[in-house]
């Protein structure tokens, strides 16, 4: 079952269960996917849909950080719930050990050996872990490996 089909099915269930929070998040995701599809001019592939989903998740995580810094616990709770809902549509996340092994493999592939090669390594790694690992975590691990 594709992402859009799963979203449609879950949207119907949320409507029946009168789960307003879940329904709202699903509608936001569907709107983001639809807007990207219109912008592109064709249907989105699963990989492109995953990119949109990753962007939605990142936006919410950024908002969560801002609300925590501002001391807005009401909004922190709301955004935390939204993050949990969006994450149900993301592929299973890689463990830190898996990410480290991919980093080691990629460093040897591109022949990186210093801090100056961080950009080259990140460019090669991100397509491999797209949607399955947080970019911030990957960046932090790459930097520690190349220091």
UniProtKB/TrEMBL annotation:
This is GatB/YqeY domain-containing protein. InterPro entries: Asn/Gln_tRNA_amidoTrase-B-like, GatB_Yqey_C_2, YqeY/Aim41, YqeY/Aim41_N. GO terms for molecular function: carbon-nitrogen ligase activity, with glutamine as amido-N-donor.
């Amino acid at each position: 079952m594709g992402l859009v089909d799963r979203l449609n099915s879950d949207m119907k269930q949320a409507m029946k269960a009168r789960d307003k929070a879940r329904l709202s998040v699903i509608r936001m995701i569907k709107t983001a996917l639809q807007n990207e599809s219109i912008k592109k001019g064709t249907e989105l592939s699963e990989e492109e849909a995953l990119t949109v989903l990753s962007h939605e998740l990142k936006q919410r995580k950024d908002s969560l950080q801002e609300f925590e810094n501002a001391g807005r616990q009401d909004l922190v709770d709301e955004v935390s719930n939204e993050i949990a809902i969006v994450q149900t549509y993301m592929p299973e996340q890689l463990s830190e050990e898996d990410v480290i092994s991919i980093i080691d493999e990629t460093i040897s592939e591109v022949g990186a050996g210093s801090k100056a090669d961080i950009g080259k390594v990140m460019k090669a790694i991100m397509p491999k872990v797209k949607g399955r690992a947080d970019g911030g975590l990957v960046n932090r691990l790459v930097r520690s490996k190349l220091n």
